Amino acid sequence: xxxxxxxxxxxxxxxxxxxxxxxxxxxxxxxxxxxxxxxxxxxxxxxxxxxxxxxxxxxxxxxxxxxxxxxxxxxxxxxxxxxxxxxxxxxxxxxxxxxxxxxxxxxxxxxxxxxxxxxxxxxxxxxxxxxxxxxxxxxxxxxxxxxxxxxxxxxxxxxxxxxxxxxxxxxxxxxxxxxxxxxxxxxxxxxxxxxxxxxxxxxxxxxxxxxxxxxxxxxxxxxxxxxxxxxxxxxxxxxxxxxxxxxxxxxxxxxxxxxxxxxx
Length: 264
Ligand SMILES: [Zn+2]
Fold this sequence. Notes:
Bound molecules: zinc ion
Strand content: 25-35%
Structural class: alpha/beta
Largest sheet: 7 strands, mixed
Radius of gyration: 17 Å
Oligomer: single chain
Strand order of the largest sheet: 6-5-4-3-2-1-14
């Protein structure tokens, strides 16, 4: 039986950040590798964390699936920096909401990037059907509430089920539908970009607070909660302060950090 893990490569929302204030949780944007015996079989999102996969002991074989939650820059920029894709060394299948071909060929091209992904023969754009079976995983998608839309993923592995909701504004009817899709997950990785006191000023921006994330985990019956999509202004020290209150409400919750590994 393969040793299957999710490895966090980036959990920052909006834009990458760097410097001594961000060492503990990391500054790369959204990317999660799913590895079997250290080899990546899938990436959830392709933010800047994707370009750093080697730093976390992740290997890339001759093919990999990339499952995008949506097409905002912080979720796709790492794809443009994946050497193996441009060299044709790895066959990359891309799944995502609506039309991933239209979204990526119109954004990864000159003048935004020196070369056009439409000219790369080693990438294929796939329609999202449920579930996608890849390696020993079954991956299914469900809608979330985010500007221009987006999806979350439920990943059923050989041992455990992990659900990922990277960018989602809680507080509408869609929360109940999400709870149904992720019901019974062992682990929920959920957007917690804002503090409760920041939520009102960011209504409509498409993100949740940690209070929302805890409510989502409780609705789904998830025993483990990992908070992600850290605001770019949230330093390590500020995340630690946030987590002190989070743990009073959900004792086993942790904050996502680059290099964190979760068994699946
Ligand atoms: Zn977004």
